[in-house]
UniProtKB/TrEMBL annotation:
Protein's name in the database: Amino acid/amide ABC transporter ATP-binding protein 2, HAAT family
Swiss-Prot/TrEMBL keywords: Amino-acid transport, ATP-binding, Cell membrane, Membrane, Nucleotide-binding, Transport
InterPro entries: AAA+_ATPase, ABC_transporter-like_ATP-bd, ABC_transporter-like_CS, BCAA_Transport_ATP-bd_LivF, P-loop_NTPase
Superkingdom per UniProt: Bacteria
MF (Gene Ontology): ATP binding
Lineage: Bacteria, Pseudomonadati, Pseudomonadota, Betaproteobacteria, Burkholderiales
Pfam families: ABC_tran (PF00005)
Stretches assigned to the ABC transporter domain: 2-215
Length: 215
């Protein structure tokens, strides 16, 4: 479903990704494991088109993403949960969930909301609350709900367990684990495997922007 082939990415002339490669097969969960600063977020931002790829290629279901404008990638079925959540503070929970759906010409708003609320029923209870009034943990759930709203084929989850209380971490694990066995492909970045080792079908280690083998 997702094939990253030897990509090179630089920010302000500093090389961040140095020929990095990974594959996320259809219907599988893959862990992207690396220390802070290893390049995990840069990899996901490259897939979403927020960073320019200077070498190599990224393919989604066989299509070269270099030919797809970044504003069209959500419409392809790619959902992205950034580490910093990236919510619009003044919008409600429901509005934040729907932002990428509004950008898509193919998704049914009510159908996608129903799906998100079936997976995260706690979101329905707080749907009218503005994002700025939520705790950090609640904002993580909203960010996951937003990714689920458009991620019909691929989810990119950047450090979903980082900085959250143990109870919420367990809840996130339950929700993500509940997606197993379907057609959805998932890439989860983490600094370690404490929260998701049982969820993953495979793992890829990134070190200083390049592939590293696990000892």
């Amino acid at each position: 479903m997702l094939q990253v082939s030897g990509i090179k990415v630089a920010i302000d002339a500093v090389e961040i990704l140095r020929g990095f490669s990974l594959d996320v097969p259809a219907g599988k969960m893959v862990g992207l494991i690396g220390r802070n600063g290893a390049g995990k977020t840069s990899l996901m931002r490259s897939v979403m088109g927020h960073l320019a790829v200077r070498g190599g290629a990224i393919y989604f279901d066989g299509r070269d993403l270099a030919t797809v404008p970044r504003h069209q990638r959500a419409a392809m079925g790619i959902g992205y949960m950034p580490e910093d959540r990236g919510l619009v503070p003044e919008l409600t929970v429901e509005e934040n969930i729907l932002v990428p759906v509004w950008a898509s010409k193919t998704l049914d708003e009510r159908q996608r909301l129903d799906f998100v609320y079936s997976v995260l029923p706690e979101m329905k209870e707080m749907r009218e609350r503005r994002a700025l009034l939520l705790s950090g943990g609640q904002q993580k759930l909203v960010a996951l709900g937003r990714a689920l709203a458009v991620g019909t084929r691929l989810l990119l989850l950047d450090e979903p367990f980082e900085g959250v209380a143990p109870a919420l971490s367990q809840r996130l694990s339950e929700v993500i684990g509940g997606l197993r066995g379907g057609e959805l492909s998932v890439l989860i970045s983490q600094s370690d495997l404490n929260h998701s080792s049982s969820l993953l079908d495979a793992e890829v280690v990134i070190e200083r922007g390049a592939n590293a083998s696990r000892e």
